[in-house]
Every structure is written in C-alpha cells, then in structure tokens.
C-alpha cells in the first residue's frame, strides 16, 4: 500500500523527488502529528482509524510483528489507536485498489504515444 502511494504520487507529480518529499511529509506530519494529538482530542480518533499507519500496524499486530515493549520507543513507534484486523484489511485493500486505479487512469490519460 505504501509503495502504491509512492507510485500514485510519482504519477501525479511526474517525478520521484517531489513524490518522495510529499510522501515523507504525509507520513511524518499529517499522520504522525494527527495520531499524536488523537490521544488528547477525541474527535480526531475516528479520522486516525482510517490512516494507513493505524491500519498497517493493526494488521500486523496479531502476527506478533509489533513488540509491545517497543510501542512507545523510537521513531517507528506506534501507540494506537488500534483497529480490528478485519477493518484494517478492508481499509488497506480499499487504499490499494484506489491508489492503483487512480494511478492507472492518470497515467493512461497522460500517455502520449
């Protein structure tokens, strides 16, 4: 899913450098800060439950890929909100299909033969 987000951004911006910059800003600033503030502002929690980060961590958590001792330590830490694994799968599948479809449509319309 994260890779397809990068592909979509690269197709939309017609380059990789800007796509990488936008992807990093989205991940760190939007998802990171909003997720951090969601613990204090209850109105943000439903929005955070739809983010890629919350759903990817929630999908791999039952597999034992998330170590509970390291949840709040380090740059890759995630402390929630956790969602149901089925919801995480469905949300990520929707993102996957949406990113692929939008990238394909934009690329097809811009393709000059």
Helical coverage, percent range: 55-70%
Approximately what portion of the residues adopt beta-strand conformation? under 5%
* Cα-based radius of gyration, to the nearest Å: 16 Å
Global outline = globular
- Tell me the number of structural domains: 1
SSE run: HHHHH
Average pLDDT level: 84
Got a strand count? 0
Give the helices and strands, then pairings.
Blueprint: H1 2-13, H2 17-37, H3 45-48, H4 52-60, H5 85-110
Give an overview in words:
By secondary structure, the protein is mostly helical. The chain has one domain (2-71, 79-110). The protein has five helices and no strands. It starts with a helix and ends with a helix. The mean pLDDT is 84.
Short description:
This protein is mostly helical and 113 residues long. It is 64% helix and 0% strand. It has one domain.
Index terms:
113 residues, 5 helices, mainly alpha
């Amino acid at each position: 899913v994260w890779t397809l987000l990068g592909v979509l951004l690269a197709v939309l911006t017609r380059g990789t450098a800007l796509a990488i910059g936008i992807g990093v800003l989205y991940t760190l600033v939007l998802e990171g800060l909003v997720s951090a503030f969601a613990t204090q502002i209850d109105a943000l929690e439903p929005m955070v439950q739809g983010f890629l980060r919350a759903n990817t961590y929630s999908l791999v958590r039952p597999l034992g890929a998330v170590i509970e001792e390291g949840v709040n330590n380090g740059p890759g830490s995630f402390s929630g909100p956790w969602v149901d694994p089925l919801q995480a799968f469905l949300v990520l599948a929707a993102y996957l299909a949406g990113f692929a479809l939008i990238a394909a449509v934009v690329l097809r319309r811009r393709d000059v033969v």
